[in-house]
Design brief:
two-stranded antiparallel ribbon; about 25% helix; 2 domains; alpha+beta
């Protein structure tokens, strides 16, 4: 059903193979567009954006290599000092890592 195709990378202009198995994978994931970058440029772009182990704010995305600002807070459960990635407003509880982790399993 699928046949290997040769595509040109939009970043480096080099040709790269879009194999039948890659096409099958893309179709299974519901992707409708063909890749526009070669594997090397895709990897470089991911590294540049900081997407090593997962995307999104919770997955470690740091906004292009900048260190995320952390704020001091007092844990609402145990009273220890905690570092959190948001400025506590005082109207909601804030938890340290030890107290927050068990709470996630209840969601």
């Amino acid at each position: 059903m699928y046949r290997d195709e040769t595509l040109n990378c939009t970043d480096c202009s080099r040709p790269f193979a879009f194999t039948a198995s890659e096409q099958e994978f893309f179709a299974a994931k519901g992707f409708t567009n063909k890749p526009s970058r070669c594997p090397d440029c895709r990897a470089a772009r991911k590294a540049q954006r900081g997407e090593g182990g997962g995307g999104g704010a919770r997955g470690g995305y740091s906004g292009g290599g900048a260190q995320r600002e952390m704020f001091d807070a007092i844990c609402s459960t145990c009273g220890k000092t905690a570092q959190v990635p948001f400025k506590p407003r005082g109207d909601k509880p804030v938890y340290c890592r030890d107290c927050f982790t068990p709470r996630q399993s209840y969601r």
